[in-house]
Design brief:
With 381 residues, this protein is α/β, with parallel strands linked by helices. The chain has helices at 35-43, 56-59, 134-148, 150-171, 181-216, 231-237, 242-255, 257-263, 291-309, 329-346; strands at residues 2-10, 13-19, 24-28, 73-80, 83-90, 100-103, 106-107, 117-122, 224-229, 274-279, 284-285, 315-320, 349-354, 367-373, 376-380. The chain has a six-stranded antiparallel β-sheet with strand order 2-1-4-5-6-7, covered by helices on one side. Helix 5 (181-216) packs across helix 9.
Length: 381
């Protein structure tokens, strides 16, 4: 579990340290006090850009008149019995584009963070996840995939890099003819291999997540029947192997060169896939549900993800920004009970920010309450 968190020149915090108890932590305070900044800091103990999807220069604290954010750092102490692990990330100079990761003082690749923590989060932007943009759903699902399969992050990163390079070559062509066909062949081979690996990982994750949702039952949130739309993912689900999927993708990329060049964007490939969900009880697409229904479906999916991550050797950490919003009193209380149960059975730590502490009243005596205001963190009780 995380027992301490330290922020230095991160977002709104000049310097702050928080000693953290097991189980749930309620962060309450006025709007703009820095509650979500704390969640973002914890979300950086995983590969990628974190909860907000921000770049490293955007995270540095700025004083009035400063054009560039300062060098910043986030550190955490993890305790497992008598053993301690220290995680750190940040940038060493103002405006630096790449953040550094350190584990027990030694520089490490970001993927190693998943050996120690597996953060999972939901933000208010995901309250209408199933009716918002397809790309947002795919990014959300990919985070769920690589939380359990760290290699998936590398596959997606390699795919996106090759996709950008291919599009640049295509749009540099003249008179409708793509530039440098031999280099395109090499890029599309890399694209196809990385895309096939990503599709297989997505299909495998979908199977285990659906099983976890089914095992949970309707407690207390509605169940979703998940699906993936995408040629490569459909082939993976049907049992095709990596070489078969890769060959199909490679042929497709070559076939659509002229179309992609004319469009100025890539219209074929696993980056065009989508996560679908059917509200099981109502037998209708989740996209047709209200914000409250969609949030309940997302919460059930996330709680199933926590169960899926248990037993993998890394601590599950749940970050729920504005968790009570769009939930009725019954589901809000049930969510808190579920978090407490998973804290006991799975060692889950959950961080729950909100403006009004009264919304978290059922957690009094069962959670740590922290007042967030003016760049200070005050543990209550």
């Amino acid at each position: 579990m995380i027992t301490a968190l330290t922020l230095t020149d991160f977002r709104s915090y000049a310097a702050a340290t928080l000693s953290i108890a097991a189980g749930a932590v309620v962060l309450h305070g006025p709007n703009g006090a820095g509650k979500t900044n704390l969640l973002e800091a914890i979300s950086l103990f995983t590969p990628g850009k974190g909860l907000r999807g921000a770049t490293a220069p955007e995270m540095g604290r700025r004083e009035p008149g400063e054009a560039t954010g300062r060098a910043w750092a986030v550190a955490a102490v993890l305790t497992d019995g008598d053993d301690e692990t220290r995680l750190g990330t940040g940038v060493q100079s103002p405006g630096a584009a790449r953040r550094i990761v350190r584990i027990d003082g030694e520089t490490a690749p970001p993927g190693r963070l998943l050996d120690h923590l597996r953060p999972v989060w939901a933000t208010p932007e995901q309250d209408r996840l199933f009716s918002d943009a397809r790309a947002d759903r795919l990014r959300f699902f990919d985070r769920l995939v690589f939380a359990a399969d760290p290699d998936h992050a590398a596959s997606v990163s390699a795919y996106e890099k090759a996709l950008r390079e291919r599009l640049r070559l295509l749009t540099e062509g003249s008179e409708g003819q793509p530039a440098d066909p031999l280099w395109l062949d090499a890029l599309e081979l890399r694209l196809a291999e990385a895309g096939a690996a990503a599709a297989l990982a997505r299909a495998a994750a979908l199977t285990t997540l659906q099983a976890a949702i089914d095992e949970r039952g309707d407690r207390p949130f509605p169940q979703a029947d998940l699906g993936l739309s995408g040629e490569a993912e459909n082939s993976a689900t049907a049992g095709a192997d990596k070489s078969t999927i890769s060959a199909t993708l490679r042929e497709g990329f070559a076939r659509f060169r002229l179309r992609d060049a004319a469009a100025g964007r890539s219209l074929y490939g696993p980056h065009r896939s989508d996560l679908t969900a059917l509200h099981r009880d109502k037998n209708r697409p989740a996209a047709e549900g209200s914000s409250g229904e969609q949030k309940a479906l997302v919460l059930n999916l996330i709680l199933a993800q926590i169960a899926r991550l248990s037993g993998q050797g890394a601590a599950p950490v749940l970050l729920l920004d504005e968790a009570p919003a769009h939930l009725d009193t019954r589901r809000r209380a049930a969510l808190f009970d579920e978090i407490e149960a998973q804290s006991t059975s799975l060692g889950l730590q959950a961080f729950l920010p909100g403006t009004e502490p009264e919304l978290f009243a059922p957690l009094r005596g069962r959670a740590q309450f922290v007042r967030v205001e003016g760049g200070a963190l005050t543990v209550e009780g």
